[in-house]
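Sample pair:
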Amino acid sequence: MSSLWLHPAFLLLFGAAVLPVVPERLRKGWLLFVPLLVFGRTCLLSPMVFGEVRFLDWTLTFGRVDKLSLVFGYILSLMAVLGTLYGLHVRRVGEHVAAWTYAGASLGAIYAGISSRCLSSGS
């Protein structure tokens, strides 16, 4: 278990939140940088479990990376890169924000952990 885990979804959601205040002359660079950063972060992930917290008699897992989620994460982050590249001609910032929010939420769902009962509770 790592002490610091930077979720790829956080990068996309942060990029989407900052995008409206990025000056127009820097916007295309930002539009290319953020998805490429997310793809790079996704490629550096290794199977692990992050952020397990015990709550009552449940164990809440805030991040789980396994081999299957890695494959889906690679595909989705590559789709974010290609989709943003395809949409560079779009001038309305809200459309990019919506697309990155959708992709960030999808990455969040891919790496979501499963809540399970603690095995030591005897249930």
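The longest strand covers residues 48-55.
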